[in-house]
Amino acid sequence: MVQQTKTPVALGETRWQALLWPLLVIAVGAVSIFVSGVVGALVIIIGYIWLVTRSLPVALAIYVVFSPFPFGLMLHHHHIDVSDLMALMMAVRLVVTSIREGSESLWQRFMGSPFWRPMTLLLVLSILSLATALSHSTTAIKILEYIEFFVVIVAVARQADLREEAWKPVIAGLFAIASALALMGFYQFLFAVGPASTVVDHFHVRGAAVFGQPNAFGGFEAMVFPFVVALLAYGPDWSRRWWGWVATVLTALAVIESYSRGAWVASVAAVFFMGVVAWVARGRTMINRNFVVPAVVIPILAFVVIDLLGKVHVAPHFAHLAVGQHPHVKPHSPVKPPPHSHVKRPPHALPRYLRSKTTGKIAVSTVTSILHPKSNFDMRQRLKIYKEAYLALRHHPILGVGLGGFHRYSMLHPQPGLKSTPTAQNLYLEWGADLGVLGLVASIWIEWSWVKSAVGALTSKVRKLTPFEFAMGLGAFGAIVSFIVHDWVDFLIDHGVIVPFLLALAVVWVLAENRRSRRAP
């Protein structure tokens, strides 16, 4: 006889009449924040406290929307994002609910995931790293960030238990903000609104939206893309409407316009392994046009569109470049485009550091930079960063330099020719440098746990998943693959960027929990 264990339910119902006023207060605060940051943030917080008491799923959706934006308050020289305060309020709601109801212990509610062992190791190492941290304040802030990301947000999203009504506002918020940021990035790319260090095709710049860094923007959109594709291909009827196609097109464009090679490879890997898992779970009939069109055809068309637009100059007046591209042009001054759009800028007009120091030629090809890394500025910098992280790990093998301390280490012990870098541009090297050898072990262990739990839940024969459960599970698996692959050449654990991945972990947690409960004797 199968024992049915009690599963968590979404806290608070989505009754929109009762949510109208708190949502209106939050909207007023969002508008006011452009006039007065402090007043706007306080109004948002008041409305959000009200909202959390009414509906946790909608509160999570608002967190998803606000997380990419750096709105916040200054507290003792430290900037606190509004999204951080939102996470704190949701955590308080979960704690109070656990104490009142007594249905689950606090440990089970916050740390009962199938990957709790490596997660616990990571958090313990982070706390112990305070003993050797180069900056105790930086490490303490990073520990709080990790608790917010991997403990609080994952636990809050898990409460919805894959009920469609509870997840609808979260999905709507995620797709809406991803689409809006995609349009913003497209505008930046098309009209060359950005720094000269991100120039592509001579007339444009890489899209970055509000993230300030194209790789982060591309990584965010590359983790949203699997969810969009999975819901459009295999989800229920309500998720396969026109807005799903719009979100697919915009997220695909966003990944391409970011010109993030890590995001490109991560998206390809996510789509490929999603197809493999769908085939293994339900047969090769799953690889049909419903999957191929949004997952393969639309990204290819998006690549063609961006490539063609990259060959023409469409900015009406000038390119807003933060760094002058000519010795006689001062920084932060507008650079006028060439008189004819088909005339490319000469090599000497490009920033000097984009040219090879050995040949004087432009080295922008990703393929040739791998074969000849010394002729490519980005590749040279990346190799220096990796060497710096290795040296930090070798010199501090026990507890590292403290969580988030690699940046300070690179400033104290810089490699010749290395520009300042906030991260090690690699998840394994970052955690190894920050937390020592065990941090490196934790990174491999936790990634294996993520993939194993997701694949096991999707291919389980205990119970056939509903269309929504399968689509969300497959999208979560794709987001996890995208995160892991991109983090080979980057580090995406940051505000806003990591949100789609956290939702993916919550989905995998629920699927694994349901699988265990139905196997129990």
Automatic annotation (TrEMBL):
Q: Where, per UniProt, does this protein localize?
A: Membrane
Write out the entry's keywords from A to Z.
Membrane, Transmembrane, Transmembrane helix
The membrane-spanning stretches of this chain are 20-51, 58-79, 115-134, 170-196, 216-235, 242-259, 265-282, 291-310, 428-446, 467-485, 491-512
Keyword Ribosomal protein belongs to the record: no
Tell me which residues make up the O-antigen ligase-related domain: 247-442
- Topology with regard to the membrane? Multi-pass membrane protein
One short Pfam name that applies is Wzy_C
CC terms in the record's Gene Ontology section: membrane
Superkingdom of this protein's organism: Bacteria
* Keyword Transmembrane appears in the UniProt entry: yes
The record ties this protein, via PANTHER family, to:
LIPOPOLYSACCHARIDE BIOSYNTHESIS PROTEIN PA4999-RELATED, TEICHURONIC ACID BIOSYNTHESIS PROTEIN TUAE
What is the name attached to this protein's record? Polymerase
Q: Which organism is it from?
A: Sulfobacillus acidophilus
